[in-house]
Amino acid sequence: MQNSYTWVENTLNDYMLMVRQVLDDYFPDKEPRRYLYDLVPAYPNRAGKGLRPGLCIATCRAFGGSVRSVLRSAAAIELYHNAFLIHDDVEDGSEFRRGLPTMHKEHGVGIAINVGDAMNVLSVRTLMDNLDAIGPTLTWLVFAEIEHMVRESVEGQAMELGWVRDNVCTLSEADYLRMILKKTCWYTCMHPCRIGALIGSGGSADLDSFNRFSYYMGAAFQIQDDALNLEGEHARYGKEIGGDIFEGKRTLMLIHLLNSATPREHGRIRRFLTKPRERRSMSEVSSVYDLMLKYDCIKSARTTARHLAGAALREFHLAYGKLPDSDDKRLIESIVLYMINRDI
Amino acid sequence: MQNSYTWVENTLNDYMLMVRQVLDDYFPDKEPRRYLYDLVPAYPNRAGKGLRPGLCIATCRAFGGSVRSVLRSAAAIELYHNAFLIHDDVEDGSEFRRGLPTMHKEHGVGIAINVGDAMNVLSVRTLMDNLDAIGPTLTWLVFAEIEHMVRESVEGQAMELGWVRDNVCTLSEADYLRMILKKTCWYTCMHPCRIGALIGSGGSADLDSFNRFSYYMGAAFQIQDDALNLEGEHARYGKEIGGDIFEGKRTLMLIHLLNSATPREHGRIRRFLTKPRERRSMSEVSSVYDLMLKYDCIKSARTTARHLAGAALREFHLAYGKLPDSDDKRLIESIVLYMINRDI
Predict the structure, then answer these.
(1) A147 and B162 in contact by Cβ < 8 A?
(2) pLDDT for B266-302, tens place per residue?
(3) Contact state of B110 with A90 under an 8 Å Cβ cutoff
């Protein structure tokens, strides 16, 4: 099993290297450097798994398309993703991203927001340069996909930010899934697969047929990510355990906890969440974490992630089943299990 | 003279009303409302002069184009402008915008950044819908104009933010003009005129021929705007005098002051600027303001604005001179003087 994950990681890494080369061409080598263009590569250069461009490229190739035809679109998705992370980190008041200080912690909120804005417009340029490789019709359809992707993401982001700001403590699992459909799934899995299929099939694929598969996959991914924020960080960074708890982020675990706790515990958690972030103490965070253990919230979230991954595997055969066997097709299927078994 | 400005204001207002109708169609009437779509119209609905869409529509009509053909592009420019203002207000830590609290003061930094991001993607949709009205070639060329516009704006913004963050006190008038070329002129005047000419001429106009005129006009506008922040606010809002001084914004007046002050005064101003914004006192702001009066900084900035407006009027004849006379052509010329004589 480990070998299969090594293969997944290596292949994603190979695709990511190609994407990085494209990105390098789009990172301007000009002024203003210090306050802008020196900072644009910072997040993309921090190690990521390359899930989004990997799904996009592999889906295109599974349809018989070339890497070259899809590379700029995959690079644009990766750029949007990183721009989104910079803004997300400011919005959530996060302190660390991929093991290093967040952009705004290092360079200030103003410059960080502006770097994110610059990356968004660099993505537009990347997509405009699709014209030569895939022609006007596909270029235009990719634009429409990206426009929808960004719109869904800001809508999901608005839900999550609003819940935290207004200290909403009455959420259900269904609310959570609706939020991550918008905030995570569209841009992490759904549109990468759709765009890969669009380009790989030369426009003939039924893009909606990838929605269920990639929705289940994206939801499993996000829940696993949130579980790792609690468990992974705990093991590896010690002090930085539970950044999400510090931020009051409405994860599936927190929602589960709020729905399981006794009225007294519920009151205690709500009072903790009412405080501004800087007044939340490490011992309070630990006690929320302990309650999550008491009510098996992390275990239960992992079970949900596994069920979603199972649903994704079933849908995989409906979405990709008719395509001839290929390494890329196998890669996409393997990513599903890799995602819920990874530990970073 | 007053009558002529009334005519300018009324005409800009008429064009702005048409733009607002288009924008209304693009403001989504759906969830998430409270944390997103209810907030998107907030800045566009606050009274603005409508300079950018006005220049765009008038230039298109001066070329014989229809309002209908240019309206979506003008609306997209106005949306980008307002998205830019929301992020700019967060980045500068501004408290008021058009007489009301800024978006982040009212709704928090996270939600404000995300609303700005949503408005950017709504502008993309507006531009995509150009297709029916002006066809694929012009739609594409407008995209390229907007891509350049946004890129220049983030570059200018990076310069200004960096100067404030690193407390740069050795700037020249040339540095300032380079910064506002990028930050203000491209998106306030240059691209609105270029896009108007592009659509109005059906793609035949030499767009670069509008650059000098609209650069001079944009620079005059920005300097006048900064002067009004000191004088206008002083008269009308009392307490909020000199928001720009509070923010340490590198205006032409501050740069002039830093280059005119005695070493002792220079040290005092620098120490004031070194403090974080929340530790700057009203009396310190007043004393910087008094030094600006002592060295005629505001008067001198207004003189520079008038010289730039004079240069714009000369360039107007080179850029628009060959077009037949029309109300729209007259409007554009009148806007130049209106801008440096307005008091709001």
Answers:
(1) no
(2) 999 999 999 988 899 989 999 999 999 999 999 999 9
(3) yes
pTM, entire model: 0.95
Identify the three-state secondary structure at position B52. Answer: helix
Q: Is B291 left (phi over 0), alpha (psi -120 to 50) or beta?
A: alpha
Burial readout A316-331 (b: 16 or more C-beta within 10 A, e: otherwise) = beebbeebeeeebbbb
Helix (H) or strand (E) holding A97: strand A96-97
Q: Which residues in A lie closer than 8 A to residue B144 (C-beta atoms)? A: 128
Give me the residue spans of the domains in chain A: 2-338
- Candidates A33, A34, A35: best to mutate against B (most CBs of B within 10 A) is A35
**Fold (CATH) for A2-338:** Farnesyl Diphosphate Synthase (1.10.600)
CB < 8 Å to B249, chain A: none
Q: Tell me how many residue pairs between chain A and chain B have CB atoms under 8 A apart.
A: 135
Residue with tokens 């995959």: A74
Class of domain B2-341 (CATH, top level): mainly alpha
H/E stretch holding B174 reads helix B173-180
CA–CA gap between residue A138 and residue A135 (Å, rounded): 6
Shortest distance between the Cα of A300 and any Cα of chain B, in A, equals 28
Long-range contacts of A309-317 (CB under 8 A, 24+ apart): A309/A216, A309/A217, A309/A220, A309/A336, A309/A337, A309/A339, A309/A340, A311/A212, A311/A216, A312/A213, A312/A214, A312/A216, A312/A217, A312/A220, A312/A336, A313/A337, A315/A212, A315/A213, A315/A216, A316/A213
Joined together, the tokens standing for residue A81 give: 């993703």
Tens-place pLDDT, residues A90-131 = 999 998 898 899 999 999 999 999 999 999 999 999 999 999
ipTM: 0.95
**For an interface test with B, which of A26, A81, A90, A117 has the most B Cβ atoms less than 10 Å from its Cβ?**
A117
CA distance A100 to A133: 36
